[in-house]
């Protein structure tokens, strides 16, 4: 059985310089830092991605500058956000056409927004969702835990847990949060939640708008492995906007697309057992731990690593974006 700290380690897998300096330095030595036109670090490129990027014709990607001593890459430095977005789109389309990366087989025709508040408008570029992990840039999503009050069970609630469809290319058959999804370019987090709640769980818009409670964010620095689909070793910084939703007993989440197989209504103990078995998608396990911390289900009395877990649910991500307290919109 996995411990709660094991679950955190599985999702927040990038070594910390304070606690694991040698591992942190060793990993950084295999990566290139992607710089924006302002010189701001915005992402991490593994060696295979850098090599593939260097081979993309300049007529497609624009000029590329590399410092092999500093391990930095400057590219997509066109004057405007529109031009930068067009250049990275053309680069990703070139890779897709040439089947350079397996991860692009999951092309979504959805864009993620990448930020730098030192640039005009605060936007570096928009990038195809499936390609974002290749550049190691920070992406954003929403995750909601829906629960129903039930008398006679521990903590007075049961939690709605979906099983991902086995046919999904990423983490097929694993457990998820009640509603979860990526925030598209230009989309507000709550509007994303409303959309995903309908698409994934058939939850009425009016109910979600009226009852969903904003519960902050969690942040982590993930390293992709084979269950994510595509190449392993890609660095994935993420910020998830967190929501809770109390559902009336008569409201039952139901799959509304091909991404969810079914929903379970589980006690806290049943969820904890499934977490221990490693059945949850890694970042969804983190969201469940955050739920347990906020509800007092997980505390200093019953979890020896409580302080460490709580701290790592809110990792400081070094790249710019609205997740940072110093962000200038």
From TrEMBL:
InterPro entries named among the record's database cross-references: DUF4743, NUDIX_hydrolase-like_dom_sf, NUDIX_hydrolase_dom
- What Pfam family is a match for this entry? DUF4743
Q: Which domain of life is it from?
A: Eukaryota
Record domain Nudix hydrolase: where? 137-290
What keyword terms does UniProt attach to this protein?
A: Kinase, Transferase
Keyword Lipid metabolism among record annotations = no
Protein name per UniProt = Thiamine pyrophosphokinase-related protein-like protein
Q: Which species is this UniProt entry from?
A: Hyaloscypha hepaticicola
A GO term for molecular function: 8-oxo-dGDP phosphatase activity
The reply to whether Nucleotidyltransferase figures as a keyword in the UniProt entry is no
